[in-house]
Input
Amino acid sequence: MIEKILLKRIVSKIKPLSIELEKKFKIENKEFLESLSTIKKMEEYNHDLLIIRASKIFKSKIAADRKIFKWNNKIPNVKKPMKEKKEYSFEDYSKIDENGKSVKESEKFPTFYNDIKAQYEAQRKHHREKDLTWIKKSRHIHTNDSVCYYCGVNEQILKELYNEGEVCKTKRNRGAWFELDRKDSKGENNVYSKDNMVLCCYFCNNHKSDVISSKDMLDYFGESMYNYLSDKIKQISS
Output
């Protein structure tokens, strides 16, 4: 129910009338109604819900494509000659117009959100433990937990590390939730699409960057990263 309300609010950008919510969704909680009055309040009040996190990722990827537009349209000079133009990476879900703005009619947030939900399901422990053999007997990872595509930690471990702050502190205020990674980040495949997106922890995303292939990340660094993060959790608990 809440998901439907938030999805409508995010997509339409129109503030819902209290009477409409009370009638259609039988909601009378004034505090919740107030939390929908602005997008900012909506994000703050429901920050831990997947739909809100997906909305923030969606906006950040559009912002990244807008930066690419600015890069591609820089006026070259003698000291800084024009480098090779970059390709947009989020065109499956949003288009950038000739002025560098997102074409609202092209924004496919519902599709993006459904793809993210499907990926969370695909990355549950019982789906991934064939490739991530080291998480099979883990006491920290439960059968239905969604796990990092590369190392296998769950979001509970990430939140504990994030809330503790000092052990694995990040300067970018990231790390509490899974992030979006492009498995293939080379050439024409360097795009966010349903078949090229996976969810991973901040540490794997930062380490892999656009240099290491997804296969090498799994084969050479996955288990080591899991052991590292597991040891950090032990430090917190001791």
In short: The two ends are 41 Å apart (CA to CA).
